[in-house]
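User:
I would dearly like some help making sense of a protein record. Take your time, and here it is.
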Amino acid sequence: MNIKRILAIIISAGLAVSSSVYAADANNGAPPEPPAENQNIGEQPPEMPDGQQPPQMQGEQPPEMPNGQQPPQMSVELPFTDVAGDAWYHDAVAMMYGMGIIKGTSDTEFSPESPLSAAEILTMLYRADGGSESDKIWYAPAMEWASSNGIIGENPDFTSAPDEDITREDMMLVIYNYLVYKDELPEGQSDLSEFTDGAEASDYALTAVKSLAGAGIIQGDGDTLRPKSTLMRAETATILSRIIKPQSPPDGMGGMPDNMGGAPGEMPPGGFGGSGEVTQGTAANTVSEDGSIKDTSYQSVGDDENALRIDGAAVTLDGISVDKSGGGSSNTENGDFYGQNAALLATNGANVTITNADIKSDAKNGNGVFSYGEGTVVNVSDSTITTKNDNSGGIQTTGGGTTNASNLTVSTFGNSAAAIRSDRGGGTVTVNGGTYTSNGYNSPAVYSTANITVKNAELTANNSEALVIEGKNSIALENCAVSGNMSDTNGSSSDENVHNVMIYQSMSGDADVGTSSFSMNGGSLTGNNGDMIYVTNTHAIITMSDVAIDNKDADGYLLRVSGNSASRGWGKAGSNGAQAEFTADNQTLNGDIVVDTISSLDMRLTNKSEFVGTVNIIENAQGGAAVGDNAVITIDAGSVWTLTGDCTVTSLENNGTINYNGYTITLADGTVLDK
């Protein structure tokens, strides 16, 4: 698949790509001539200890450091169990991981021998150039960047479809073009005679292969270059460590990005989002000394400007008013991640107590109350927070901050403006009492990339799903009244699924990959449109206890556990199923449940729970390879399942009661149960 198809994919995703992208490459995809002035950059991996030679399987051995230099020291402890401390690629992986250029394939695996796709290598280079990925299609900005900067051309032999594995020679071509773009191409070329397979390099990539081999950036295994072979992840880390300079981490980053999770395939993005460093803009008013302030007003109309910033101080604010009535954010992610342009921002370990406040924002990317960073604590109570523009949450927590809220009246009116909101780096949010209402599209009442607990509150999303959990994060609700009303057409993921609660992994890098947790104890959950709960591309633990569940959409499922089309970057189509553990505890459930063939559901009815509906296994829409234990159902003593249609499940353990009503349950082994 050639670059034109990639661009077609990007355009179909609704991205604005410059018309210059479509212009035919004057060299027909061949690398451009190197600039007149070149410089050698990058640090090379160290010499093997005790004279050892690296394994030949990977093909990229670490060279000796020139002139007695020492490799850069990266104080990064790798979480990967498959990267040994003495592995030839260990230091390169540590360097690239520590810089946020490359991630794992899971929380604990790097998968050094796994292949890499074109989208992934281009995304890594894009990160190195300071770019950050999209929340929607993670690789699309990297593709647009690569196209507009001459890093990919129009050569039809360049097979670099986003999800296809890339060859080593195609990797050499994009790295060559990247170095030309950066004006950092080393001098010298090799005639490739030292490699037994040097003649196998394609004509379109030959200049790149000769140049990178001559500079020692590409070294093969000493005998072969394997230009037609698939690029592997260990090789990639080693090669990139030779061309990307280590950088000092942003303040407070501890040497590496906070979000270092991974996923099948390369998980975007690198760094800590936005500009790659903490960028919070300016403030019209800043409090940086401990103290108490009462009945004071703060205003802002400036771009990238907080109306009030509490910077590292312990402050009590009583009866204040904050009005962010104008000014925009020059970078949406800096606003979302770091609090740039927020009405009130607490940062740098501030400890803020806010009572009886009136906080307003009319600005785009103007979040109401923003708690950013480890050690920052915001306690806000008995206050009103209103935001009216897009990307403007009510209370926002990121970067490991803490927010404690009680008895608030929060109203948001813009799109992508959750009432209780978190983003990159997450944190801890505890809410007790109050009303939290969102009115825009893509604006849940609660959006969690954090650990969020809400008690005794009303949570209403008038034009969005009610709740969203992304990745290794949680929402725990107790005695809350929850209602959502997602649009069939205007939701950002409405074309994928319409739902009331979504639990997923977006691959945007905003949330670590891992187990999502959703629990409700008491209260009510009302869905006005679509499925009640949708789980995709993640592992989720769901517990419902004594909740009044009301799905007003007769065609919506109670629970859908499935893969997705990957059109939004949520994993890889056909292998992005979900794994859900659903426990009903003294719970009444009504509705149908479906789980697709690449997903699994472990459902248990406990403590006198009652389920009226069906469970069925359906084919994955993208034709992915089936997994086992798609639907495992356990009914404890005292619990009841009443069928409303025929069912298909993997296995069934019944210690309670099943009312068949003339329907059947077919097990994976072919057994048909009808009474």
